[in-house]
Amino acid sequence: MKSLFAACVLACTLLVSACGTTSTPDPEINFKGPLALDKKGTVELSGSGFVPNSDVTLVFRTIDGVESDITYAVDPAPKADYEGNWVTTWSYGRFVKKKLVAAGDYTLIATDSDFTPLAQEVVSFK
After folding, report:
1. Parts of the chain with a pLDDT under 50
2. Closest CA relative to residue 37, chosen from 96, 92, 95
3. What pLDDT digit, counting tens, does each position of 59-86 carry?
4. Which controlled-vocabulary keywords does the entry list (predicted)?
5. DSSP 3-state assignment of 79?
6. Which CATH number is correct for 25-125, 1.10.760.10, 1.20.140.10, 2.60.40.10, 2.60.40.1930?
7. How far apart are CA 39 and CA 59, in angstroms?
């Protein structure tokens, strides 16, 4: 009986270890910058390593820490494909026009639908 119990414990340990070896890449945001202070500015944003077939929300953080959901300003709405990748275009010109941004570094955050941060990247305006 003890050997059967030991065999079950060993089998479960091996199974858990095998499940833990599957790794998924950390989510990341990609784009080409720095961004110009252009009142009609747009930039292509992409992401990889996200949960497949999941919605992605994009949040912009200003230098003073104010966060704003910018998903309304992207087209199409970012949604990870079956491989966890997404691509969208951000029309950031309104931020320039309204003087919400100036030259400097800001933060772009990709979150899940509950606003849990998944990845972030520095966005520089020049």
Report:
1. 4-22
2. 96
3. 999 999 999 999 999 999 999 999 999 9
4. Signal
5. strand
6. 2.60.40.1930
7. 20
